[in-house]
Fold this sequence. Notes:
Layout: H1 21-24, H2 37-44, H3 54-57, H4 65-73, H5 77-87, H6 91-97, H7 119-133, E1 148-152, H8 156-167, E2 171-175, H9 184-187, H10 196-208, E3 212-214, H11 225-231, E4 234-237, E5 243-244, E6 257-259, H12 260-271, E7 290-294, H13 298-309, E8 314-318, H14 330-338, E9 342-344, E10 347-354, E11 358-371, E12 377-381, E13 387-390, E14 393-396, E15 400-401, H15 405-408, E16 436-438, H16 441-444, H17 449-478
Helix pairs in contact: 2-4, 4-5, 4-7, 5-7, 6-7, 8-17, 12-13
Bound molecules: flavin-adenine dinucleotide and iron/sulfur cluster (SF4) (2 copies).
Amino acid sequence: xxxxxxxxxxxxxxxxxxxxxxxxxxxxxxxxxxxxxxxxxxxxxxxxxxxxxxxxxxxxxxxxxxxxxxxxxxxxxxxxxxxxxxxxxxxxxxxxxxxxxxxxxxxxxxxxxxxxxxxxxxxxxxxxxxxxxxxxxxxxxxxxxxxxxxxxxxxxxxxxxxxxxxxxxxxxxxxxxxxxxxxxxxxxxxxxxxxxxxxxxxxxxxxxxxxxxxxxxxxxxxxxxxxxxxxxxxxxxxxxxxxxxxxxxxxxxxxxxxxxxxxxxxxxxxxxxxxxxxxxxxxxxxxxxxxxxxxxxxxxxxxxxxxxxxxxxxxxxxxxxxxxxxxxxxxxxxxxxxxxxxxxxxxxxxxxxxxxxxxxxxxxxxxxxxxxxxxxxxxxxxxxxxxxxxxxxxxxxxxxxxxxxxxxxxxxxxxxxxxxxxxxxxxxxxxxxxxxxxxxxxxxxxxxxxxxxxxxxxxxxxxxxxxxxxxxxxxxxxx
Length: 479
Ligand code: FAD
Ligand code: SF4
Ligand code: SF4
């Protein structure tokens, strides 16, 4: 084994420096610094190069983690980037926002009693360095192909597929209803987790690679699915999930009770300097308000931390289970607490009170009952445990469901599941419509960026196969 590795015994785990909470509460910039070259090398050298690397098995992209850690430890960063980018279209984005504690790092089996290798931070360092050094260039396909591919949705699934298809030489058109490409990377996830220029340089490179973006183009409004099928040799649906799960409680219709995504989109748009009028009548700002966010996932965490940065008077997160059973990442809960968010665990909303606008959330205590079929304990209200929280802005972050895509696309023939997700053949991600594939959250339901990238790549592999078979059949027919 090279001298550069197996240093977990002599070098402690060190994550990149984190800005002080009192400083980061004031802006939307990322909170973690970058490793310096020595720290990156040191941390990569802690890897013990396991024969069976569980980190790799638990990375949805199957990243060759020990290999790029070894190259980093040896100071061969350009090679490390080449290897990291062979399996991941956005290593610097995953390095920032993957819940590593549940994926690669949570499964790093370095040795008992030693903390995991900081895989995500090293991945981010490798890719950020590649950008800084100019190693990342626009795509130049070896040969151009005449077939065109239409991709609906410029989120991580659509973008990963677009890149793979362009690499293979196809003419790629990406359609998105928003005015900027990136999907939830741009308008969902706040800048303190992922700064927007990090996303912009990726989409910019795709544009420079010859991919055509049709923005402000809503499929169903501008053109139907059938129109796009006419225009392109194959299509990918990668539209994500956007319908917020509702809450049934007295008073839920009062003013200043808003959905999480509206709140986050408005905040992200303001960060770009946009004038936000379509769904913000001026109330979607937490400044000076008592904010109560209901929910316990990553979206709820992003809302509470956004409210802190907007200058809220107080920010509380109401969640019906306890800390251990929260779906949001433990790291983000800790960051939120440091920034002054108060978590009200084991509490559920009973009613919203107020005249026209909300002034309080009446809640009751919950306890965890017997485990259901999935092994999760169901929360149940504790009798006579009611209490009220002051609230001038309530944000509902209870998860997302797909929109009614067949209706939206003017395509009743498109098959969807009873949850509204697009049904695909899991062998090749093709829908019931010939040449129409689907990937990302619209197939899985709300998931993770890294899974969307994986699906986008898999869909591209299938689309390339499909187009090759079609080209072969046309050649044979012509002979
Ligand atoms: P999306 O990113 O949703 O992109 C879909 C695109 O399709 C959008 O740009 C949309 O405008 C477009 N579109 C939709 N309908 C149409 C139409 N009719 N015509 C044209 N275009 C259309 N994951 C993580 O891994 N880490 C995190 O920290 C994290 N934080 C999150 C925070 C929030 C607030 C949210 C909401 C999600 C978060 N996620 C996180 C989940 C992650 O963002 C998604 O799983 C991922 O973005 C899904 O990618 P996608 O490409 O399938 O869809
Ligand atoms: Fe870990 Fe995500 Fe990177 Fe995979 S893509 S190595 S899970 S940070
Ligand atoms: Fe290295 Fe940890 Fe992966 Fe083992 S599991 S190869 S120690 S990163």
